């Protein structure tokens, strides 16, 4: 029997995106009956928004997060070996990128199952594209330490890494802690270091701006509390933006 395919299904980065999910993704989704999702409630809404043609109650779904036992995930994914295709959905953006869906993808590769990534929004790449920073060498660090002292030290370490490798450094924070992160960043980083804020990507309230730390201190960014955002650092990018 031919194995099924593990489809990686992108989802919007927020409510009412300006840039919708491509139509062909909805067509693929409409042929699936089995799904792995970080959160079932969010996944069912995404399916509905994509025009899922079947009753949502018929969509068999397992939640995949840090608490999901490996045995439970493997039992569900064995549907692939029986010829059934499965879709993987993240909370937002692309599955498997800063996302627990990577566990399902790794299992598929170990078992010779085809993995098919579908086109959709990646907040990491969108932010990098729009930052004006080095897009040929970059590193995404996920969440940084929350404690102020440790966060300050870590930011300076990223600044040094950027300088040594001419590399863009990207990271995120829980939306309600964005303002606290900015305060520490503006206090810890050098005035000449470039710092990009990319918030609400693809949404009507999208905000993207790259300035030096010195410039940010003179003109503070808009309120970012509870707004999903990415932050980027680059210390060798002055010439990229026409600065000296």
Plain-language structure description:
The chain is α/β, with parallel strands linked by helices and 244 residues long. It folds into 2 domains: 5-117, Cobalt-precorrin-4 Transmethylase, domain 1 (3-Layer(aba) Sandwich); 123-241, 2-Layer Sandwich (Methyltransferase, Cobalt-precorrin-4 Transmethylase, Domain 2). Helices cover 34% and strands 20% of the residues. It contains 8 helices and 10 strands. The chain has helices at residues 23-29, 40-49, 70-81, 102-110, 123-131, 148-165, 178-188, 213-218, and strands spanning 5-9, 34-37, 60-63, 86-89, 114-117, 138-143, 168-172, 194-199, 207-212, 229-234. Strands 3-2-4-1-5 form a 5-stranded parallel beta sheet, with helices on both faces. Strands 6-7-10-8-9 form a 5-stranded mixed beta sheet. Strand 8 and strand 9 (207-212) form a beta hairpin. Helix 6 (148-165) crosses helix 7. The relative contact order is 0.15.
């Amino acid at each position: 029997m031919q194995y099924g395919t593990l489809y990686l299904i992108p989802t919007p980065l927020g409510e009412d995106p300006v840039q919708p999910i491509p139509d062909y993704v909805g067509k693929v989704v409409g042929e699936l009956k089995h799904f792995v999702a970080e959160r079932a409630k969010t996944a069912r809404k995404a399916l509905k928004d994509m025009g899922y043609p079947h009753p949502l109650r018929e969509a068999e779904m397992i939640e995949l997060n840090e608490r999901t036992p490996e045995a439970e995930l493997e039992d569900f994914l064995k549907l692939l070996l029986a010829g059934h295709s499965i879709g993987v959905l993240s909370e937002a953006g692309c599955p498997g990128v800063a996302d627990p869906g990577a566990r399902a993808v790794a299992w598929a590769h170990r078992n010779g199952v085809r993995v098919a990534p579908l086109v959709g929004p990646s907040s990491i790449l969108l932010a990098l594209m729009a930052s004006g920073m080095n897009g040929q060498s970059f590193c995404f660090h996920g969440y940084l330490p929350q404690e102020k002292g440790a966060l300050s030290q870590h930011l300076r370490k990223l600044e040094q890494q950027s300088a040594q490798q001419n590399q863009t450094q990207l990271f995120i924070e829980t939306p309600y802690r964005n303002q606290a992160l900015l305060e520490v960043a503006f206090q810890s980083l050098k005035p000449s270091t470039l710092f990009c804020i990319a918030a609400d990507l693809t949404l009507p309230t999208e905000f993207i701006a790259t300035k030096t730390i010195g410039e940010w201190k003179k003109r503070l960014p808009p309120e970012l509390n509870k707004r999903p955002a990415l932050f980027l650092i680059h210390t060798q990018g002055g010439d990229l933006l026409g600065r000296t």
